[in-house]
Amino acid sequence: MLEPLSFGDQGWGDELLLGALMTLLVAIPTFLLGCVIGTAAATIRQRGHRIASAVVFVYTTFVRGIPELVVVYLIFFGGGQLLGSIAAQLGHPGSYHVGPFLAGLVSLSLISGAYATEVLRGAFKAVDHGQIEAAQAFGWPPASAFLRITAPQLLRIALPGLGNVWLLTLKDTALVSVTGLSELMRAASVATGSTGLPLYFYGAAMGIYLLLSAGSNSIFRALERYTRRGLRAVAAP
């Protein structure tokens, strides 16, 4: 019964395990880059610069308004064409392409960054601006005020939403399989094509995704408890 999932030449367990590791190798840096993009974009929206805010608004609206698979195709196929056009203008004509891993990293970072922007923009609005004004009155540099006052509260408020962005990013890694990257979904597809057992291997992939999601939820719940530990003491009678 479990022979197809065994390790070695007789089973596909090692391929699925390596696919799951590749899924994490794509998802983790993608999520972190998305948080960096989201923080920068939300800060721009918060400060209200007209042109920069308009650019961020167009970016988030565009990325969130189209299917994620279209973004992956645009980066994977269109990215090579764009690189070729730029290289031709610089006097280096030729055929260029974006690799599967890089295409997945860039496309999913743009997607997670768009959603993280909206999460962090809402968190920025929830932080009491009076505390920032007080820090400015005491002569704190803006960087110190952000790191010591805004950032801890921002993290506490945004964590639940960022947990959802992480799960979205984790699931979207399955879309990168269309580029040929050997992540979990691609490994399950290859195993299905070789054995003719789609229910078996896609079910195994589903189980692995659920385990990754459950583990992620536990980590984010622990982080939420850690960031709210002071609030419990204040709220206690």
Strand tally? 0
Q: Kindly report the average pLDDT value.
A: 87
Biggest beta sheet attributes: none
Strand residue content: under 5%
Separation of the first and last Cα atoms: 57 Å
CATH class: Mainly Alpha
Principal-axes geometry comes out as: flat
CATH topology (level 3) name? MetI-like fold
CATH architecture descriptor name: Orthogonal Bundle
Structural class: mainly alpha
State the CATH superfamily name.
MetI-like
Tell me the count of domains.
Answer: 1
Q: Give the SSE order as H and E letters.
A: HHHHHHHHH
- What's the number of helices? 9
Low-confidence stretches: none
Helix coverage percent: over 70%
Radius of gyration: 22 Å
Task: Please give a structural write-up.
With 237 residues, the chain is mostly helical. It has a single domain (9-235), classed as MetI-like fold. The chain has nine helices and no strands. It has helices at residues 13-47, 50-65, 68-89, 100-126, 129-137, 142-172, 184-195, 198-227, 229-235. Helix 1 packs antiparallel against helix 2 (50-65). The longest helix is centred in the first third of the chain and has 35 residues, at 13-47. 29% of the residues are buried. The mean pLDDT is 87.
